[in-house]
Amino acid sequence: xxxxxxCIIGVVCIMTLSCNGQNSQQTGTNAGKxxxxxxxxxxxxxxxxxxxxxxxxxxxxKESDSxxxxxxxxxxxxxxxASKESIRLTTINDTLYYMPTVSNQNDGKEVRFKETQLxxxxxxxxNPVHDFPKQIVYIKTSDTTVHAYIAGNDKxxxxxxxxxx
Length: 165
Hints:
With 165 residues, the protein is of the alpha+beta class.
């Protein structure tokens, strides 16, 4: 009987030490990780594009190290808001996701676009099964300008934003 008790205690000790070793390895691995949102800090601002039909405003706020909240509005010349989009930009398992919710589209549900390319001056998100767009791109063209576009199905819509303020 004593032998069984000692075996059980030994197994529990080995399992405990094994789990502690795994936890410290994971902490060490995560400690050196770079926050991908830091690569695109230039996006976190208020942007505006004037068109003959109205003004498009896109704003980004850093909610936390792993979540940014964005909003895009199309404002008509008379001041009415024609469309609104809310966006979450977040990190899931070391991958960035662009998740918009557009008024009067997709039954009010969020659509997920996965980061496929990331540099210090550009980011590409894709969702090949979505009807349109299939791709969302942001390119820093200067400290005060961004070229963004949505594309898919042989169609592309360009947005040439200027930083507000």
